[in-house]
Amino acid sequence: MAATTRLNTQRKNNHNTMFQLRNQKRGCVHAPNKIGPYGLPILGYLPFLQPNLHHHFTKLAHKYGPIYKLRLGTKLCVVISSPSLIKEVVQDAIFANRDPPVAALVTTGGGLDIVWSPYRPYWRDMRKLFVREMLSNNNIQASYLLRKEDIRRVVRNLRGKIGEPVDIGEVVFLTEANVIMNLLWGGTNGGEKWDRLGEGKPNVSDFFPGLGKFDVQGIEKEMREVLSGVEEILDVVVGERMKTMEGGGEWRGDRRRDFLEILLELRGQEVGERSFDVPQIKAMLLDIVVGGTDTTSTIVEWVMAELLDKPRVMEKVQQELIDVVGVNNIVEESIISKLHYLDAIVKETFRLHLPLPLLVPRVFLNMWSIYMDPQVWENPLEFQPDRFLNDTENLDYTGNSFQYLPFGLGRRVCPGLPLGERMVMYLLATLIHLFEWRLREGERIGLSEKFGIIMRKSKTLYAVTYQNYHISTCMNNHNMI
Ligand code: HEM
Question: Does the keyword Heme apply (predicted)?
Answer without folding.
Answer: yes
